[in-house]
Write a structure and sequence with these properties.
With 457 residues, the protein is α+β, with helices and mostly antiparallel strands. Helices cover 52% and strands 7% of the residues. The protein has a four-stranded mixed sheet with strand order 4-3-5-6. The radius of gyration is 22 Å and the shape is globular.
Length: 457
């Protein structure tokens, strides 16, 4: 570390201290209406995705795991008539929120943000009688902190094999929990150190139940860290940027001072970077390719028999998360470019029913997947893009490149489209509710208590 950086660090405090000071005053700052609305949208999308995942095996297992704690707390298990202590509820709802891979994304972080933030904050909300405004302040602060880390070190962190959603997300999620609990700066700093002690998650687990477990572990560990810090548990002051701290072990010792200089500056990151809402329930690395293939299929009136082969060209790093070529079940299919292309070509649509085990094992899908070839381009990782070239049996080639996926922060779903997505998730999850009315009720909230809305399903 240079003398200039060291002097600046001593003057302003280390990373943990700077983040803690920001988080300790986050609820006191006036939050722009657009940021509050973005937080409401994130809560709705995450909750709906969790309800859609209720019948997944991973959710069933998580529910059995927390069964001994049923009735011992105030936090709702979404879609079930059970209440748990906050940490257990954050874990159970965290598995459900991420199991379908339908939850939102922050592209520069290479991670899902709301799948950790929302279950953790929702689990703590009953205990502090949080309002929607209080939830929004905590959510936006957590997002802000995650985004600053993302700008500094997310790409090499992810490339090493870390599951950024959990291994990086725990820092912002813990800070958000501290905001909701009203921690002072000292307690926030200790909470961050306790979070570093629990940061974990590997990309090797993509395509298995462990991926949603990792995200859920992050949410539960964030709750644990914030609550323990509120009770007086301590951690080392240099847990983030010390010699053996987070930035040394999980990153490349990148200096955080520059990004932390802009912490809380307008526009806030939730508006600057924005949230990518998924249109398809699979890895976001598939979405641009699916958009492109579906557009070509519709534009040219194509059927699978008309296509000789499919070539996918992606931007650099576009295949890092896609670790399965020929999936054998629905979870693996979510991380297979071959499956995504075959599904779009065969069915003309990609939705929740596309990633059941039965759908992934269809003989006609397995006949199409070998037609898909994939190349990853050299060059910068960002901006990301996918280019699809279809070689037709009549000798023609048709091609389309997509740089902005539908639902991306650059081409967001409207509130009406988000309500439609949520309503479809509630229906798929089999809950007895007017999904559109329930969704719209949340988007219309402002300062009302949050718990009654969560308890309704």
């Amino acid at each position: 570390m240079s003398a200039a950086i060291d002097n600046a660090r001593q003057a302003s405090g280390n990373a943990g201290e700077r983040i803690a000071r920001y988080a300790a005053t986050a609820s006191q700052r006036l939050l722009p209406a657009e940021c509050q609305h973005a937080a409401r949208r994130a809560l709705l999308d995450t909750h709906a995705c969790a309800i859609a995942g209720l019948r997944e095996d991973a959710v069933t297992i998580a529910s059995r795991y927390v069964e001994p704690l049923a009735g011992a707390g105030k936090a709702k298990v979404w879609g079930q008539d059970r209440y748990l202590p906050p940490e257990a509820a954050a874990f159970c709802n965290g598995v459900a929120a991420h199991v379908l891979d339908y939850d939102d994304v922050m592209t520069p972080m290479r991670a899902h943000v709301s799948a950790t933030l929302v279950p953790a904050l929702a689990a703590l909300a009953p205990g502090v009688n949080a309002s929607m405004a209080g939830f929004a302040a905590a959510y936006v602060a957590g997002f802000e902190i995650m985004a600053k880390f993302a700008r500094a070190m997310a790409l090499p962190h992810y490339t090493k094999g870390w599951h950024s959603t959990s291994a990086l997300g725990i820092l912002g999620t813990t800070a958000a929990c501290g905001v909701l609990l009203g921690l002072d700066a000292t307690a926030h700093r200790h909470a961050l150190g306790l979070a570093v002690a629990q940061a974990a998650g590997t990309r090797q687990n993509f395509g298995s139940m462990a991926k949603s477990f990792q995200s859920a572990h992050c949410a539960a560990a964030a709750v644990r860290s914030a609550v323990l810090a509120s009770l007086g548990m301590t951690a080392d002051a240099d847990a983030i940027d010390g010699k053996y701290g987070y930035m040394a072990l999980y990153a490349g010792r990148e200096d955080l001072s520059g990004v932390l200089d802009t912490l809380g500056a307008r526009p806030l990151e939730i508006l600057g970077i924005g949230i990518d809402v998924k249109k398809y329930p699979c890895c976001y690395a598939l979405h641009r390719g699916i958009d492109a293939l579906l557009a070509l299929r519709a534009e040219h009136g194509l059927t699978p028999d008309a296509v000789a082969d499919v070539h996918v060209l992606t931007s650099a790093g576009g295949l890092q998360a896609l670790i399965t070529a020929l999936p054998t079940d629905g979870l693996e299919a979510k991380f297979s470019m071959e499956y995504g292309m075959a599904c779009a070509l065969l069915d003309g649509s990609v939705g929740l029913s596309s990633f059941t085990d039965a759908a992934a094992r269809r003989p006609e899908i397995h006949a199409l997947m070998p037609k898909v070839s994939i190349t990853e381009a050299s060059g910068p990782i960002l901006p990301r893009w996918s280019e699809i070239t279809l070689s037709l049996r009549d000798g023609r080639k048709v091609q389309r490149r997509v740089t902005v996926a539908r639902g991306d922060a650059g081409d967001p779903l409207s509130d009406r489209e988000l309500v439609d997505k949520a309503s479809g998730c509630y229906e798929y999850g089999g809950v007895a509710v007017d999904g559109a009315r329930h969704a719209q009720a949340l988007l219309d909230m402002n300062t009302e208590p949050l718990t009654p809305w969560l308890d309704a399903i």
